[in-house]
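User: Batch of two.

Assistant: Item 1 of 2:
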Amino acid sequence: MRQDAGVDGDAQRISQLTWILFLKIFDDHETELEIMRGDYRSPLPEHYRWRNWAANPEGLTGEPLLEFVNLQVFPKLKGLNASVEINPRAWVVQQVFEDAYNYMKSGHLLRQVINKVQGIDFNNRQDRHLFNDLYEKILRDLQSAGNAGEFYTPRAVTQFMTDMLDPQLGEMILDPACGTGGFLVCTLEHLRKQVKNVEDEAQLQRSVAGVEKKPLPHLLAVTNMLLHGVEVPSSIHHGNTLARPLRDYGPKNRVDVILTNPPFGGTEEPGIESNFPADVRTKETADLFMALVLHLLRPTGRAAVVLPDGFLFGEGVKTRLKERLLTECNLHTIVRLPNGVFAPYTGIKTNLLFFQKGEPTKEVWFYEHPYPPGYKNYSKTKPMRIEEFEAEKAWWHERVENEHAWRVSVADLQARNYNFDLKNPHSVDAISHDPAALLHEIASLDAEIATLKARLKATLAGALERA
């Protein structure tokens, strides 16, 4: 693909590769269904199925291949006119290709890529296992692919959050900003350990749902679901959950578990905030998602959400959301992550908030996640690993204060006007964003500067007199 003049940058290469992979995975899955169900019929027109135009290594190539892909395959798959209720499998294909593009300009290079992909058998357990690891690497590469990095949450973080929430078969799990589907994949793997029979597998197939606004991560997420055994990933929607008025989400839309890393630092398009009650209207995307999460949880539902430091010490809408978190939910844990977890996409420090709806908070436990020994930061070659969370996991169910963990009462948080950005009392060099502490520090520094200026002035005056 790097030799092709039409593909510019990693994000386009990943997008190009993914629609090709999607069609191959979809076709291999259809092969399996044809063997298992004698009456299976493909929702795709026969001429446009992968096996009939891509599978033959000596098939179409050069300009004829480009013309076929651009003028027939894409228009046909974009225009299937399927509904999720009547033909969900066709609807998934239509959704995937809605905003997909063929960027390659060389039909010969495109044929070479297709032949490479054809060499993978997604019905072979070993091939699929190896490819899952490769696909995870493709998703990791998104972090350095410009703005596309916002759609990938490191696997160690998604795994830890899922393990701690412990979703159960029979519960409905949602990620309202699902990106490439990392949380949903971890949830599927977690639930699959609980599957004992055919009925359980059918239950698992209905257990996860996600929504993604941008076409590339949506395509990656749907492909991810297919790779992890979801037969018809029709519950992965292409859209913006914030675009629907909050009052329109009724009891049937409520879920048991929400795992999400909403985009932060960005602003929503004009008018989106009007979908929310007046007291939480803002253009800050992460704040709107927090209001949505609180609304969508069932009365005893639980959630784990990734949020930036700015949410902890921010005021205005953020203060009102934090007050709701303490009064409507048990915000039992905040895990504070170090710098670099989301590098190179962003260096902003992040936090993992764990809470359960339905009972007020009495106290909040904070856990400051340390770097592993020998690390000063994370990088592409030294990413965060799930093994680092073993200390938190061991501490989780038998909590005691230690060098990384401390607790704060609700009364103390209320007295601080819901500023959750607390310094680790066991750390001497922790940074605080407490306004009162910062003002005091600024005043002290100003006084020190004034003293130094006076000394310098006196020294200069004395030197001039002697001269």
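Item 2 of 2:
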Amino acid sequence: MIRKDTPIIDDNACLLVIDVQLDFCPGGALAVEQGDQVVPPINGLLTLFNNIVLTQDWHPAGHYSFTSSHDGSQPFSSIQMPYGAQTLWPDHCIQNSSGAEFHPDLNTSAAQALIRQGYRREIDSYSAFFENDGETKTGLQGWLATKQISSVYLAGLATDYCVAYSALDAARLGFDVNVLLPACRGIDLDGSLSLQLDKMSQAGVTLLEKLPE
């Protein structure tokens, strides 16, 4: 559902800041339109949460999800991998590259934990909880359990990929899930944005159109 009022933030809530990296911002290898505009609202949100996790796409060179790893393939085409359909992306967020770095204006010092995903060459990872096989865990669920977190709030890039996949997994795992839409931007590849917004709503994820103050 879409809710326009603001949520109540408490010690059992965690802000997940998803992949605010230079390769996903204007000028990056896989730029999301207006991707850099999520930084100011996210920095404002950081002051409202006691529990904050950053996620970071962290691919080795030659990752199997890269178009360059498949001769004759085109960017944004799809191939079958052992875990299912896989979109092929331009090379992006390569480990230790400038494009993998967080946006320089993002206040990363507020975070208690960093979750890196996509670092296994043979499998991609959109969700902050699981890689794309739906089984390989990132460690985020365990960290949230130790902090007795029951509610998660998501912001970052991109709404219809890593934010949505993370939100859907969080809902499946039993968390109360909220997506802070003004602090997200989407790719909208072949209608993916409206599709994923519908999926999240149907899964019980609250889509917030207004940020807490």
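The helical segments are 39-45, 140-146, 159-172, 192-202.
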